[in-house]
Amino acid sequence: MTNLKSRISNIKVRITKIPAWLLIVMICLIIAGIGVSVVRRPADKTWSRVQESGVVRFGMDAGFMPFDGLAVSGEFTGLDADLARELARRLGLRAEFVQIGADRLYDTLQAGQCDAIISALTLDAARTQDFFYTTPYFDAGLVLVVPTKSNLNELRGSTLAVEVGSDSDDRARWLARRTVGLRVLERDTSDEALQAVESGQADAALADTAAARQYVAAHPALRLGPRQTSNPFVIAVPANAPELLHALDRALAQVEADGTLERITSRWLDQ
Amino acid sequence: MFLWATERLPQPIVLVPPQQTAITQHPIVGVHTRLTDEVEPWKIRKTLEMVREMGSSWVVEFFPWAYYESEQGDFRFEHADLVVDHARAQGLNVIARIGYVPWWARPHPKGQDTSLNYLDQENYDELGDFVFEFVRHFKGRIHAIVIWNEPNLTFEWGFRPVDPAGYAEMLRVVYPRAKQADPNIVVLGGALAPTLEPDGSPNGMNDLAYLQKMYDAGAAPYFDALAVHAYGLRSPADETPAPDRLNFRRVELVREVMVGNGDAAKSTYVTEAGWNDSPRWNQSVLPVQRIDYTLAAYQWAEGHWPWCKVVAMWAFRYPTPMRNYHDNYTFMGTDFEPRPIYLKVQEWATR
To answer: Residue A173: in which H helix or E strand, if any?
Structure first.
């Protein structure tokens, strides 16, 4: 410790020995360097194109309602479509949609056939070299569903209903290995697992947040319990479009702050 | 000063465990593993342990030519040895799929850009040389090799029009080299993609038509048995096959082509099969259906296909998540957490 203190004081002594004029020159050079690096940063061509055209093109696989779908009229619909339109509006733009198969979303974005992906997309850390992700706008993780009057605080000794073979089944088995007396009740579908709670066969069900919210909205005898896992949905843009990313994040912050995001979410999941 | 950065770090020591026996009530059960890109030896060992513990006695694995002979004549089988030795230690039969062409066996990229699945006929001898070395190296350690993958798809044929006669010629060149290295090796032809592509399609050729054209081109003497892919898509395992349907029992139509061409005595190996339970793919089924259909498929093959040696389901585990519907083919997560389908197959196969 003494050694460290003496080293720090040595550094202080050295700094105080530097002439003032030299310090000023050094500071100027640092500022100039930052300036040069800012100037040299490649322009965000995606954002420039979006601003010039007034259109932001969202890639979407329209086969995953209530997030991504196509209306009979051919119009893109669902939570993601509504959110994309609102974000574009806040940025003074118009949203257009490009239908893309789920496994080609990133390729299409990289090829420049759309400007961003909004498609119930899960953040993929392995792709962060090539793509940027916005702040999450929805968490689709697994959540407990319990009877409205239940005061279930812990799962010990309880019966948990799940859709057999699903992610909730995976998680329930994981929980069962760590929770004394937890019994997993398998049902063929998510709805049947939730019905098991209503009928008293299970103390709780485990389901993804979207399915759980939709079911609970139609079944007042049930309510959402604690979240068990996290699966955030995000919007992706190419890594060379930081200004577009910033603009989308700014708009997302606005819609979250003024309650618009929750209204859009509720329109699709709670009615 | 930077010596630490350039020195090779000590490699982890992962011992090949004592010899195990794969115990199963249903020897037809197999899985296709994905260990080609698995770097860490302990993960290879763990994967194959869990294959055995599920009640599977077969693994199908991809062994890319381009990885093991990246310079012509310089064969490096260290990673392949790792996979095969651990599989053998677990008592598993190994079926090795061979494909992926090294750069030096393809046209020069300045003249012609080609994919890893591109091989001109004039280079078939080089594939033959590799197969000879591969089979010689693994003599007595692997059961069978599959030559190429789904050659009836344009993508798998180097983005060229598919060519059954060309594939038959490949088998004619490679087969004797494999037998020269190990007369007991089983050489599998085919592994055609089940597809209904119409005549002249730029994507590929109907598998039944392709197989017939292989026979017409004289392929029969150059494979000991046929590898078949049998995806169920949205149909149950026992759905009746029809030429215009893609389902699990399409294998029976493939079999009819074999029998019609005098190959009834040959076996069939299902080297890829399965159902997908992604909520994000329009060709998937519910998780409960995936479990039911998978078990029913093993049972159907066991009960009705005496000529079928193995049904290997795609895919046991991926080294990293694909983050798309492909993840929903797997039997376990990348973290080795078994998916419910693993436990259901295990319960059935080992009880």
So the answer is: helix A167-176
Instruction: Enter the tokens of residue A57.
Output: 């093109």
What is the nearest CA distance from B287 to chain A, expressed in angstroms?
A: 5
**What is the sign, positive or negative, of the torsion defined by CA atoms of A203, A209, A215, A221?**
positive
Of B284, B346, B348, B285, nearest in space to B316 by CA: B346
Burial-class residue A211 by CB neighbours within 10 Å (0-12, 13-18, 19+).
buried
Q: Report pLDDT digits (tens) over B38-79.
A: 989 999 999 999 999 999 999 999 999 999 999 999 999 999
Give the closest-approach CA distance of B50 to chain A in angstroms. Answer: 17
**Amino acid identity, residue A107?**
D
Residues of chain A positioned with their CB less than 8 A from the CB of B324: 102-103
pLDDT digits (tens, 9 = 90+) for A65-118: 999 999 999 999 999 999 999 999 999 999 999 999 888 899 999 999 999 999
The nearest alpha carbon in chain A to B280 belongs to A64
| Partners of residue A126 in chain B, C-beta under 8 Å | 320-321, 323
pLDDT tens readout for residues B157-211: 999 999 999 999 999 999 999 999 999 999 999 899 999 999 999 999 999 999 9
- Total residue count of chain A as it appears in this document: 271
How much is the ipTM here?
A: 0.80
A204-208: strand order across its sheet: A183-187, A159-163, A204-208, A142-147, A222-227
**Residue B185 tokens, joined:** 């090796």
Asked if the Cβ–Cβ distance from B288 to A189 is below 8 Å, we say yes
